Amino acid sequence: MTTTGPRSGARSNVARLRAALPPRSAEIVADYEDYLRDERMLSQHTTRAYIGDVVSLLAFLHGVNADDAGDPSAHDERLDTGLDGLGVGVLRAWLARQREEGRSRTTLARRAASARTFTAWAHRRGLLPSDPGTRLASPRPHRRLPGVLRADEAAELMRVGEVGADTGHPVALRDHALIELLYATGVRISELCGLDIDDVDFDRRVVRILGKGRKQRMVPFGLPSERALRSWLRRGRPEVATADSGAALFLGVRGKRVDPRTVRRVVHDAVAAVPGAADIGPHGLRHSAATHMLDGGADLRSVQELLGHATLATTQLYTHVTVERLKAIHDQTHPRAQ
Q1: Is 188 a catalytic residue?
Q2: Taking residues 186-213, what's their average pLDDT?
């Protein structure tokens, strides 16, 4: 099946731009990709995003476009200078071009950060005499409030999953188990898809998560998740497992490790069955888990550890969605509230 849509179109354009780069620049991109994947150990999704930004930057530097792909005459020897000329002026002009094209402040901030990561690497490798990224400022991104479910909507989502699992169908058992685990632990979709059976410790009721940067953390889960996981492993997984399944915890219908697209579809379809609930995906369940833990009295540091956030500032974003609860407490308890 051919994948279409904005995301696949963007990937196709990056591939064509990459093919249009002069040979030396193409080699640099390949080396940088190896660094991100093998040394930084970034996820496939993050690596692809970083490479897309660098390809765009180098295409701007050399004045090539996607239409030059496959055209040998586009690789003029005068252009094949690697990173010569890549200074802060080029970085600023590259960002300005994207701003003119209507890119959001959040996108511009991300791409500026990506460019700084690349120029720092290039300087360490001796590809640049100095690091121009250190002089590149970027707009502060807008911090959008995350979409979340109310606690009662989350409970209804789990109940809908239980009803489906009661049919005993393998896919329904899987879907219920993965939604329960997503909400119980707040794991990222990539972390969920990467889980193996041995990562689940039923005795201690914790799951071992391999997060960003290959960092491990242990996250607890509750009795509902345990029951759903046991049912999937006992009654569902054996029905779809094949010789290619390996140790993967969650499987697709053909027996291979479940992929993120399937998980996104499962969550969106399940949430759609909850009356009045916002249309959220797996990341929305992560937001919901964090918000509900804070609503329940959890401290920020604990939530930071559970979610695997590198900085507390990221976790603090969730405090904005609990303002109404704090206002209610203030109204009830402060002598000067009324």
Answers
A1: yes
A2: 90
